[in-house]
């Protein structure tokens, strides 16, 4: 019975691929929010009636979105590495047989 490929598939390949998909979904959401926040910061910066507090608040909101986008991309990369390790293990098992 070939249990090793099934174990690799369900412990590395499937969870890693799910992490990639979920992080890509949240990356798209957060990237859209980042673009909107940056556009709002630019709009406030060009407005002559804006005070320093509003500009700082808008900038820090955009910075929070930027950190979220970075974190989502990092999780996507980690999921891709986990998936690649699982696929590599499956290929190496096939070569052994």
Separate helix tally: 2
Shape: rod-shaped
Order of helices and strands: HH
Overall mean confidence score, pLDDT: 93
Rg, rounded, reads 21 Å
Secondary structure category: mainly alpha
Give the proportion of residues in helices. over 70%
Largest sheet: none
List descriptors:
97 residues
What does this structure look like?
With 97 residues, this protein is mostly helical. The protein contains two helices and no strands. Helix 1 runs antiparallel to helix 2. The longest helix has 45 residues, at 52-96. The model has no long low-confidence stretch (mean pLDDT 93).
Topology:
Blueprint: H1 4-46, H2 52-96
Helix pairs in contact: 1-2
In short:
The protein has two helices and no strands.
């Amino acid at each position: 019975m070939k249990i090793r490929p099934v174990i690799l598939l369900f412990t590395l390949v499937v969870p890693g691929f799910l992490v990639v998909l979920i992080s890509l979904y949240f990356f798209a959401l957060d990237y859209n929010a980042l673009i909107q926040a940056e556009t709002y910061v630019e709009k406030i910066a060009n407005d002559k009636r804006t005070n320093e507090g509003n500009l700082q608040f808008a900038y820090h909101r955009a910075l929070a979105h930027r950190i979220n986008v970075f974190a989502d991309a990092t999780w996507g990369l980690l999921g891709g590495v986990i998936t690649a390790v699982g696929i590599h293990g499956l290929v190496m098992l096939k070569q052994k047989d």
